[in-house]
Design a protein that fits this description.
The chain is an alpha/beta fold and 308 residues long. It has two domains: 215 residues, Spore Coat Polysaccharide Biosynthesis Protein SpsA, Chain A (Alpha-Beta Complex); 83 residues. Helices cover 42% and strands 19% of the residues. Strands 1, 2, 3, 4, 5, 6, 7, 8 and 9 form a nine-stranded mixed β-sheet that branches. α7 packs parallel to α9. The protein is globular, with a radius of gyration of 20 Å. It starts with a strand and ends in a 14-residue tail after the last helix.
């Protein structure tokens, strides 16, 4: 029988974690499952304490550890190291603490993995909103469900709702996630870039769905622009880390310059069309984030926790 470790990073969201753990008890699977939670909060460790309270009567073996070094990359590395210590585990699934899976989630993941032979897979993430976002927000990152047709893909979207083979993880040297991206985000995209360079294959499993609730604090203009800035910032840091050739670097700089020239003009022209103007503003902030990265600056989006 297959064994899968479900690895969950958490930080000060005990209610969300409780919802996720409850949903995992209800999944319908033929696999043997181990649930592993790494709490990145050494001060309050609410997630760790929750697991200790639940594990005696929990459906699956439930393990909890403290990831002492602060950072999303750091806690993911603790999870991978601990998951690989389970010698019978052929797969590691990753869910963020603000997500929860559908009942058939794991077996659907495993079925698509068998069909595609992929090393790393992502399932669709369906968004629910605590407060309905404005119409202008539709084009911003983190404001709509993440879905693709099932099958091979060139790249994955992020570290939420993943299934990784053991061989895939063992093919990379630790740290699997770069600690330089501790609180900035982007550690997942850098991880996928390194997998791609190692010749690993990716696939999407639309039917392996997870759900998430977007809190009201993440639907306003201020947060969405900060998110656009952060994505541009981390994307450029990843681009520079992988030592682009001079032509690729020049092309990227030209695209940034063009965006900076056009965005203010578009904002004026499209001022009467909120959706289009917001998109121009998003592009402007994303490119400002790239410039900050070129200047050696980075933005710590994950220094603030949203949700409970």
């Amino acid at each position: 029988m297959l064994e899968a470790v479900v690895a969950i990073p958490t930080f000060r969201r005990p209610r969300s974690l409780a919802r996720l753990l409850e949903a995992l008890e209800k999944i319908e699977t033929e696999a043997r499952v181990v649930v592993l939670v790494a709490d990145n909060d050494t001060e309050r460790h609410e997630g760790y304490d929750l697991c200790l309270a639940l594990r005696e009567n929990y459906r699956w073996p439930l393990e909890a550890v403290i990831a002492a070094e602060r950072g999303i990359a750091q806690v993911r590395n603790v999870l991978v190291e601990r998951a690989l210590s389970h010698r019978d585990a052929g797969f590691v699934a990753m869910l963020d603490d603000d997500e929860w899976p559908s009942p058939g989630w794991l077996d659907r993941f495993l079925r698509v993995q068998r069909q595609t032979g992929a090393d790393a897979l992502q399932g669709s993430i369906l968004f629910e909103f605590a407060s309905a976002p404005k119409s202008w927000a539709a084009g911003f990152d983190g404001m709509s469900s993440i879905r693709r047709p099932t099958g091979p893909v060139d790249m994955l979207e992020g570290a939420g709702n993943l299934l990784l083979t053991r061989a895939c993880l063992e093919s990379l040297k630790a740290p699997w996630f770069d600690p330089a991206f501790a609180l900035t985000g982007g550690e997942d995209r850098d991880f996928f870039e390194r997998l791609a360079q190692a010749g690993k294959r990716f696939a999407w499993a639309d039917e392996a769905t997870a759900h998430t609730i977007v809190p009201a604090s993440r639907t306003g203009l201020r947060w969405t622009l900060a998110r656009a800035f952060r994505i541009g910032n981390s994307d450029m840091r990843i681009f520079l880390k992988h030592r682009p050739k001079p032509f690729a670097r020049a092309k990227e700089l030209a695209k940034i310059a063009l965006a900076l020239l056009l965005s203010p003009v578009l904002l004026v022209i499209l001022a009467a069309v909120p959706n289009r103007a917001a998109d121009a503003l998003r592009r402007l902030f994303r490119n400002l984030g790239k410039i900050a990265a070129l200047l050696g600056r980075h933005y710590n989006e994950y220094a603030v926790t949203h949700g409970e």
